[in-house]
Amino acid sequence: MNLNVESLAPKMLVFSAIILIIIAISFGGNPIYFIPNLYHTEAVNDINSIAIYRSVMGLILGCCTFWLYAAFTRRFVLGALYSLMFAMFGLSISRIISLLVDGSPTTILMVYLFMEAATGFTVYAIIRAYEKKSNS
Question: Among 78, 91, 83, which residue's Cα sits nearest to residue 63?
Answer without folding.
Answer: 83
